[in-house]
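pasting for ref
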Amino acid sequence: MNSPASITLTSPEETADLASRLSAHLAPGDIILLDGPIGSGKTHFARNLIQSALPVPEDVPSPTFTLVQVYDGEVGEIWHSDLYRLTSVDEIEELGLTGAFDTAICLVEWPDKLGPLQPASALLVQFHADPAAEETRHLTLTWSDPKWTEKLKRIA
């Protein structure tokens, strides 16, 4: 596991910009795990990443109730999942998410619900709200797959 990288974003626009820049370097098989409490910015980040990867902009709702939303991006399918409501790892297999890990760009909110199915090749982005500044988010990025080192250098 690489040493974590820390990023402080002081506005929703900065969060959207980071997501958009990262989107330009993603390919099928890239998995981003979005971790943090409710309201910390996970869905805002995912929404902007997805919108910037679509050939034609479209509404990107939170998948809290549908569990998974699939989009046709410029370079392939993008799966956005919110596992908050899941109660068992078995439900993940039923969603088809583990198969999508190999063939699509996957964004997973509440990745702790993946349990042993959490892919080792994923980029983990942890979101922390700043209690002193309402719009500020502190992100911690960790990864073990060397491809993320290169992708993150390109967006720095």
